[in-house]
Structures are given as structure tokens and as C-alpha cells.
Predict the 3D structure of the following.
Amino acid sequence: MVEFGESPVVEFWTGAATALIDCCIFHSIDTLKVRSQNAQDSLPWENFRKASMLSRPSLVLGSLYAGFSTNLFLKIPYMSMMFGMHAVNKCIFDMVGLEHANEDVREITSAVLVGVEASLILSPLELVRIQGQNNGKGGLISATRYVATHHSPWVLLRGMDACIHREVKYCIGQFAAIGFVESALKRWSEANHETNSLALQLHENASLRILASSMSVGFMCTVISQPDDVVKTRMQSHLPPSRASSSSAAKGAASGAASDSAAERGYQKYRGYLASFRTVSAEEGVAAAVERVGVALLRPSATRARGDKHGTPTREAPCGGAAAE
């Protein structure tokens, strides 16, 4: 079974570097995914048609990279924490006398814990990002200022339950399922490499087995977690009426009252985890929760596995200690 690194320091920095690369390359796809999940236009087509030919490329780029600064500052702590806490969890298992427990049980248990731990920092940051990415509230500073000014601090917990559901499923795939699939491919290739050309390739190339495992598990996790991702996006896009709009409505401002009413309707429709599922199912059909999975599949998962030059799993020193022979 593929084993992930067990040095928390190495894992934190690996997660940070992976997040930087991921965000710079794939933010535009993430923007399309989020807008698709929220049933919005992928691009501002009306503004695009009105713009001159010379300004259209910059308009498209600016739209696709809306909320980039927020996403960057979201991804780095999130992925650092995800990789690092997996190593920390296993160190804790060793400290409490579970070092000899079944390795598969340790991996799955740690993955579930990471899903919860990562969501505590990820969900509030994603809410701020979505305000910039979907609702036009600007980058990190502007979107954060908007949330802080117009809503109570409790709004940052909105969508947390959907985020935990999604992350637990993803982390089980990230830290456990890849290893299961890679082990199964290894056993199959060893048994069939003399009669099957694909088995021969997998038998001779450990990196190919790991790549196939990562891609297949990433595909599976994306499909399984897509409904939770849709619900989270809807909940975090439809916040409760802001303090500013409520104040305007109280003063008799017609536009403020209309805005407040629309925000209240959207908030009530996606008030909670189960309510959001019911709304999507009733208004768009059950399949709506997964029908936009195509855009999400364009975005690669951050799965990874390491091996030495012979393809055997590398076991790092636990908790940053001396490497075991």
C-alpha cells in the first residue's frame, strides 16, 4: 500500500507548494466549476458583447480569475493543513499506543479526521472566496471587508456541514483509497504480466500504477462529493440579508427593501444542508446535483504518492525523527 509521508514539517511545506501551483494553473477552471454549480453564466456575456475586440481578452481573463487572491490565500493554508494534519494524526496515534493498529484503519481514521480539521479553516475561506468569485465582491481584502461589514461573524460557519461531508469523502480517497487501488493493481499485474501487455506495463512501472490509481480515485471522489460541493456553493452564495440592506429597508428605501427581500428568499431556499438538497431536487431535479460534474472533472485532484526509484513506498521518519532502517 502507498504510504504518505509522516513528517509534519515536510508535509506542511509540500501542501503549500502544491497549493501554489494548483491555484496559479487551475483557478480559471475552479471559477467555471463554481459558477456552473450555482447555475450562473460561465462568463459575463452581455458585457463581452458590448466590449471592443481589443478589450475582450482582458475581460475574459479578469472574469475567470475573479477572486484569485482569495483563492490563493485559501489554498495554501488548506492544503498545508490537509497534508500536515494527516502526518500529525498518525503521530498522535503512535503517542496513544496505536502504532501497531491495522494500517488501513489508521489511514481511514486519519483521513476522516483530516476532513473535519481541514473544513474548520477551509469553509470560512471558501465563503469569502465565493463572494468574490460568484457575487462580484472583489479580491481577498474587498470580499473579507464585505462579509465583515454586512454580516455577523456567525455567517462564516454557513456551509460548514456540507464542506465536512465533501472533505471527508475526498480525504478518504486522497489518503486511503489510492493505496487500496494501487495495491490491487500491483497484485493483478504480478499475476497477469506474462499474458497481458497492460499488466506487464503496470508490473514494470510503479509510477504508472500510482498515476492510474490517482486518476481513477480522483474521478470517483469528484463524482461522489459533487452533490455536497453543489450544496455548499449554493449555501455560501446565498447569505442572509445583510445588515446594510436591512438598514436601508428600515429607512424606506425601495431598492434596499427589494434587495433585502430577494436575499431573504435565496437564504430561506438554501437555509441548511438538507433544505438545500430539497430545493435543488424540487426546482432542478435530483440529477442537478451531479449533472455539472463535467467541469469539476477538468480540475485535477491534488492526489499524490511517493516511491523510491524501485517503486517501493518510502516511509519517512515519523514526526520528524530519525529515519527507520
About this structure: Confidence is low (pLDDT under 50) at residues 301-318, 320-325. The two ends are 18 Å apart (CA to CA).
